[in-house]
Fold these 2 entries.
Entry 1:
Amino acid sequence: MFDEPLTAGTLVRGNLTYLPVVPGRIEFARRVRQFLLAHRPEVVAVELPGPLEPLYRRAIDRMPQWSVAVIQSDEDEESAQYIPIEPGDPSIEALRTAAEIGAETIFLEPAVRPGSQSLGRYPDTASIEYIGFGRFVDEYRVAGSGKHQAAEVDANGMAWKLQGAVPFASVCVVVSLSSLDALLDAMDLPQEEPTKPRTRLFENADLFNLHPDCLAEVGTEPPFYQEMYENARHDLDGFVSDRRIWQSALLKDAEREYGINTGESMRSWQRISVARFSRNLAALDGDLLPGTYDLTLAARSIVDDNYGYEVWQTANRFSVQQTEDDALETVNISGDDLWLRTRKLRIRRRLPRVKQMLQPAGLKRRKREEYEGEWASQTDGTSICSYPPEDLVIENFGLQLKGFANRTISEERSHTERFSTSMLDGIDLRETVRNWHEGALFVRETAKHSGDIGAVVIIFDEDREDKYSYLTTWLGEHQNESDMAFYSTAPFDHIVGPGIGRAEYGGLLMTLPPRRMYNVWDDPDYDLAETKAERLLMAALDYSIHKDVLYVAKKPPRSMFRQLAARCNRRIRYIPVGQLSPTQLKKVRVVHVLDSYKRRATAKQYIW
């Protein structure tokens, strides 16, 4: 947090201390509470409509539950104005804290302005974490945003209220930044009492309890954030005012609920993509951090509708809010009733249906241990072998990678040129359309790669922290099965059947023809390697019978390996692992190790 005194951003004029705030923002609610507790003024003035003071008093008494003031118009009985009263608003916090310290309170606004709850456009308050309150207030005023036309209308009335306050008492004026400069100008001149409105607008005003399902739509801050603030309200020194931390906590809770309700787990690439997507959405609105809508849209777009639903439900969570209240009637209103230009998002939540969950009577259930440690006791560890169906999966995946690499090499060698004397391999429609304004044809020459890939190295994790401790090399059993060297988690730490262990690849090497590979992990020729991934790559260059070696990883190998490959008359073809299907990578990354060949007959009963 930016370190600054509590008086930063305040203005002192005689016995009046102006504390400018951004309405509805938790950072300023925390600031107001800290300032009032530290200085304990005798009077606290807030920029709230005086005619609604009784409703605000009732709403404060039932805090931290949310309320809404509903103002019915005499002229149009079907229209109403809604003013949410939420615990994270600075003015509401000023009233609550003033009651604690025994200060007198003054409601400054002489009337209710239509749409007053959305008055003013402010910079993202997340910047306060870096620049502080003082500079935030100064930059806002210098930029010319400090005078708002709607605020100037009631500035004289607010000034009249302040000028009539206790003359020698210490007064803290909690005023919005958009009204600050207009109020300061009005305080320079004596003001007359403002005329009272002719309409009986406030006689039809009443207070209602807000339904828990609508809080995120009508609130200026996500209820999840406001509950975090409410829980730390009596010990604000331990409350972190960093919106990035709030957002991270929201997404973690949503991810946990997503796993419970769907059985799915989030991948690291999905978390990164959600962060980038939501950041770009926030940038389009000129904000530093995404709001609830941005997070929900990113979660739905990157993961699925179920995760988007969990993000929205988590953001809407405020545990103390009740669906029914003995003293107040409960209303469920939408964002359209309060805000202009609301954005809508359709989420189609997918839940398992009962009929789909029914199983045929003859379907065998997965076998379980009769007692803990039964399967581990049946593992002798004298030998190991692979599970043939998984061998087919990994071999087919290796063939797909070789084909993908060959197509990539061919694409790199192909070229397009303007048609002159030969059609080469045909018209390049894309380039022709792109240069249609030139009125010329473009033709393409495809240079097919005639070579083959001699070895394939796939690195899921470079394992610089030594998480994958199981190192082994096994030989192909027939001419179509590759020799393989890999490092993985310890398979027999996760027993799934008698003599059957489950592991996860960290990286692997495959090469044909089989039965040629010495134990890669004990070969002193590869001691120059700094990581397990580099050792596999050195072995691939050594055992490959073709010139090209395919290397799939998050980042390319060090430049020294290009030189090493050239000395061996080999060439490294690098493919970023991000270009491959995450679903397919998740499938091939699992490996089962059997402790003997006899386990293959029963393995299908335990491996799913």
Entry 2:
Amino acid sequence: MVLLPEKTFVGERENNRYHGQGTLTFRDGDKYVGEFKHGEKHGQGTYTWSDGSKYVGEWKDNKKHGKGTWTYYDRGKYEGEFKDGERTGQGTYTWSDGRKYVGEYKDGTPNGQGTFTRSNGLMYEGEWKHGFPNGQGTETYPNGGKYVGELKNGKPWNGIEYDKNGNIIGTVVNGKKIKQ
């Protein structure tokens, strides 16, 4: 049985470490092409995983850091800011089925102000926490109706529901709908 090396490197070196431009190919089929600094991915580079996922953007200390685009194996795509390897800052995630989130991220999940849109026209615009609508926001429905108020873990919590003409059709108090 012949074992291939865990990884192979072709490129510039300094003090026997990857430094400058280079290509790092892993046994599992992953590949990085880009800049290195003191043996780590640092600067502009492209990392392609064996499953077809790809990240193109900035690196710092071996982690995605700065602006970049991460295309996932399921054709989902994130374009935006990264910090210490996580989606953090402003970004846009587009799912292959047309759903889209545009807004703030923290530690890899929607956190802060953001807008989520489904392909059927459903839209939520407002506060997010740990990946869910949490706080003040507006949900707009495909039929033109709206919910305006507080959401808790993605569910209407305290607010008012309107029809497409702006007439109040109900309220939500502590997560329970009350019809007008």
